[in-house]
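writing this on my phone so excuse typos. first protein, seq and then structure
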Amino acid sequence: MKPPLTTVMHWVSQALFGHSMMAIRALDLGAATLAALGLVEIGRQLHRTPVFGIAAAIGFATLYYSYGYWEHAQTDGWAGFLLIPAVVLMLKAWACPNGRSRFLAMLGSGAILGVAFCFKYTIGGAGVLVFTPLAVNFLGKDEARFYFTDFLACFFGGAVALFVVMMTLATYGAWDDFIEIQRYVMSYVGYKGSDARSPLIGFQLPGMISVYLLVCVGVGLMLMVFDWIRNRRALVLVVAVLWIFSGWLSGAAQGKGFAYHFLPLVPAYAILIGFTVEYICHRTSGRAFSNAVAFSLLLGLYFPSQAATENMSGVRALRAANGDAVYVGNLVPFSDFDILETLEFAQTLKKHHGPDDTLFVWGFETMLYFLAETPPRYKFPYAWPFMVAHNDGRYDSDLLNRLKTVPPTHFVVQLQDATPWATGNPRSSEGQLQHFPELLAFLNENYSQIEEHSRFKLFQLKRDR
């Protein structure tokens, strides 16, 4: 269901950090660190003081790590991170006269936006940032100018990035399946839970849980407006507003109201935090006192935030002898997902599962393949295509033929995993199995149940097969 570069990101994490659940977290930490450093560079390109860049970077980290386990290492976050180098190159381009250097900078910016699009399609709205100079010249007296070649270069850069991704998929024979998946998942956008948040909530960054951060962000936007009214300099204001709009649109267009869908707002809000801290520090006298004020303001934002709470949990886990267990034990389960119970069942599965055995999971918990170190071999690694309300049975015979040709050693049926906001269907995977009689008959005829867990049932292929 995710765009193609999501898979690449996970593959890179395993290649760099080994076969571990924490590998993708480590890569995400590296990406977040580079994003924070990129905000410092944005401050430099905007000719702000070092306080602006440092405060923006710390504000970014505080915002991002106020989110929890589920919201990190998400495609929305990675797409949002990529807007930072894209904006850096745009700022470099706008500072250059119309010529080769400007064209190349805009070409690079477009290529990065194209890569971001391959992480999350809805981030495409960020392309509006290329028109920033038009708004800047209308509102103020900044020297930024818009040339049509800026748009052409940005568009061409994005097209090249998309072409490379498409050719890679075609080279490895994945293009047709990729297109089929994209067509099938289109109806997913229309599914939402009865308690789905309004898209307007996205501006509040649901999950951030700190009124101080929200106030600082709001004050930063008001101060930018005040600064524009006083000095008629609109560049930083226009960049921030267009960035906020495109970040919000990326989340709102998905129609779910999930907190992580609005992660592209985080870098834009970090810029507002940087502006607020810098503005207040400029109203103080003396460099030492100004730095002390900035330090106090940032501490005042950090300690009441959820990031401080999450970090303390991480510190306690690091200090514990069984750090992984302590960390995982602090994670709050969802109605359809409980990592503790998944890990517990994985241990049960490993007792029966040999290195040459195969596995099929009828459910959503693809983590079981990873934990059992057994890659999915039946084209459909999870039950979503068969669970959705718009399922017309087009894949039923394909799945059955694959299972009958080479029956998996173990067959897992998942319980309590109903996700009507993602399927339009209130049933769990176990419940949906009753509405797939051919698959149910295959299971009953060829398998014996050997384990039952609160969220899983484990079946083993009969010996006479």
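second protein below, same order as before
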Amino acid sequence: MIDGHYAISPDLAAQALRAEPCPLSSRELAVLGMVAKHWPTDQIAGSLGLTTGSTRNVISSLTRRLGAHTRDEAAAQARTSGWI
């Protein structure tokens, strides 16, 4: 804050304007966040109240949608994009 006004650096403002909107749901982001922390599928499922099979399907779908080859790549892409 400067003189009672919020100040944003020009670089940060430009970066925010260039950022792509997140195409993922809050559930998908939660799954990717846990994948990024190297949680096993059964632990992710238990945490979200899903079956292990449904969780595997969500991870597989996310991996394809993000053009990644592995679940770790998908999580890394989401982190690089600022989504998680």
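The first helix runs from residue 10 to 18. thats all i got for now
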